[in-house]
Amino acid sequence: MDDKLAPGHLSLRIQEGLRGHHLLFDAEQIREAFAVADRAVAREDADEIGEVLLSICRDPLEVARLAVDGLAPEARLALIRLYFRLLDRAEQERGLTH
């Protein structure tokens, strides 16, 4: 994935995710995120998710993981679904370039 699409460490996290290594989340968190219906994100959750996305882009994995774990449960589930949408987009773009 190009750094223009994923700044900083996010590009590395997406590359690992495309290999099936979802280092920011536990398997149980991922299962939970897809077990509930997708819904609009509350404004306060969106602000919190934005802050964690900045951490994912700029901070080492351990720090980003702590930020993810510190999210409110609904916000974490929304972030996980967003992450997998980013993976889908990266996979589509990778298919277009090969």
Protein architecture, described:
The protein is mainly α. Helix content is 70%, strand content 0%. It has five helices and no strands. The chain has helices spanning 9-18, 27-35, 43-58, 61-69, 73-97. Helix 2 (27-35) packs across helix 5 (73-97) and helix 3 (43-58) packs across helix 5. The chain is globular and about 35 Å long. The chain starts with 8 loop residues before the first helix and ends with a helix. The model is unreliable at 1-5 (pLDDT under 50).
Task: Itemize the secondary structure elements and their pairings.
Blueprint: H1 9-18, H2 27-35, H3 43-58, H4 61-69, H5 73-97
Helix pairs in contact: 1-3, 1-5, 2-5, 3-4, 3-5
Alpha carbon gyration radius: 13 Å
Count all strands and give the number. 0
So how many helices?
Answer: 5
- Mean pLDDT, nearest integer? 88
Series of secondary-structure elements, N-terminal to C-terminal? HHHHH
What is the share of helical residues? Answer: over 70%
**How much β-strand is present in the residues?**
under 5%
Spatial shape: globular
Compute the separation of the termini in Å: 12 Å
Poorly predicted parts: 1-5
**Main sheet specs:** none
Q: Give the class from helix and strand content and strand pairing.
A: mainly alpha
